[in-house]
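Please review this one:
***
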Amino acid sequence: MTSHSILLLTERSKIIYNKIMGRNKKFDQATVISTISQTFIQYGYEGTSLDDLVKATGLLRGSLYASFGSKRGMFLATLEQAISVDPTSETTIDLVIIALMDLTSHDQKINQLVTDWSQQYSSTTLVNLLGQAILKHGQLKGAPHGKPRNHQ
């Protein structure tokens, strides 16, 4: 076959080809996305390395890249899944905060996804959802600790 040849595969031949070439996905994508989500939540987007994702999922780099294309693709998949499964879950809110901090200013697709998500809620609800999550991460649990400072 020359470099200009076209290879046409039926669905059955694609399955056979993938098995022969070792490209058959042997993992549950939803489980992997969940694991990747937790890794991003633990380290943040910028702080998460591909090595962190490989270690957390137990998959090889090639498998992750083949499934998601890039680290950004992995984050996008996690955010899309979280929003579609439970838009107000702790995981979703954490991923939205990460997106707001690290990605929405320069990634139009993620910006649009977060914008669409946010438009489902009133500004008061958004403040409560995001604020409580931020306070929790700061280990403030929704209320200031100690005595209020005397501002003079």
